[in-house]
Specification:
The protein is an alpha/beta fold. Helix content is 21%, strand content 33%. It folds into 2 domains: 16-27 and 140-289, Cytidine Deaminase, domain 2 (3-Layer(aba) Sandwich); 33-123, no CATH class. The strands form 3 sheets. It has an 8-stranded mixed sheet. A 5-stranded mixed sheet has the order 5-6-3-4-7, covered by helices on one side.
Length: 290
């Protein structure tokens, strides 16, 4: 998949369907990129800069995003307090293709950087953490999955959602919570965690495995109940998962991240079919289709 800076990215995928041989098809992915926002302001007659936030977002309308973010965070009270914008399109990370937007506040507009020292990282999957630079977004990925291993039958993959469902106890009552589950290569459920934040559910699973001394998770499958964002793939890679499945769609950056680090990423997981976006060599076709 060629890197593009667009709201929509075309990619090749492998479609696994019960009763059929895998098909190579084209698919469209939603664009996801890091956008760093840097505030330029005047203090005691001296021009200063403060890295404010990294937003994981769909490319386009960057200035509107910045205005809305600054307003809702209480940094400005109206757009008239912004003098100008400056775009730096040169990426600090070639894989992530990040961009930087400088927001120049008008002279006299009060801004206290000490109030915003935690450096927001506003994720497209609604997480917030303290990363101040895009160079750090890939995280401490040290457990690289073994090439082509493990191999898992497609018949097992399609049953993961059905296996998860009875154990999503809060979801069954509320319908408003995300789940992350860990399976072995035979499709046996090992652990499941729920949280209103999909990133939190993943963190809870990783935390549990850390406590039990079970990382890296080289022979495990991690499954999420929603879509596959960059952040979830990054967290799964840090934990060493070789295979990740999602009920929903992946973003283009999630696919690029998984592909670069050797993870098999599966999306649109249903009872009879699913899409493999990268490293399909780990998936064995449905038995009756052989």
């Amino acid at each position: 998949m060629k890197p593009v800076k667009s709201a929509v990215t075309a990619t090749d995928t492998h479609r696994f369907s019960r009763g059929r041989k895998p098909e190579e098809k084209s698919d469209y992915l939603t664009g996801e990129r890091p956008l760093a926002t840097v505030i330029r302001f005047e203090k005691n007659g001296v021009q200063q800069e403060h890295p404010l936030a990294i937003n994981m977002c769909t490319p386009g309308e960057d200035e509107k995003l910045a205005i809305g973010f600054l307003l809702t965070e209480g940094i400005i009270s109206d757009a008239g307090q912004i003098k100008s914008f400056e775009h730096l399109n040169e990426s600090a990370n070639s894989l992530l293709e990040d961009k930087t937007l400088y927001v120049n506040l008008k002279p006299g507009v009060y801004f206290d950087p000490d109030q915003f020292k935690r450096n927001f990282y506003a994720s497209s999957s609604c997480g917030v953490c303290g990363k101040a630079t895009t160079e750090k977004l890939e995280g401490p990925i040290t457990f690289i999955p073994a090439t082509g291993k493990p191999q898992v039958k497609a018949d097992i993959i399609v049953k993961l959602g059905e296996t998860m469902r009875p154990y999503q106890r809060i979801f069954s009552k509320t319908g408003g919570i995300h789940g992350t589950a860990v399976f072995d290569v035979e499709g046996n459920l090992i652990e499941l965690m729920e949280d209103v934040g999909r990133h939190n559910a993943m963190d809870k699973i990783v935390g549990l495995l850390v406590e039990r001394g079970k990382l890296p998770a080289r022979d495990r499958i991690v499954s999420v109940s929603g879509r596959a964002s960059f952040e979830l793939v990054q967290k799964a890679l840090v934990a060493g998962f070789p295979i990740m499945t999602a009920v929903g769609a992946p973003s283009d950056l999630a696919v690029r991240m998984a592909s670069a680090y050797g993870m098999t990423l599966i999306g649109f997981l249903k009872e009879k079919n699913f899409n493999v976006y990268c490293h399909p060599e780990r998936i064995l076709n449905f038995e009756e289709a052989e």
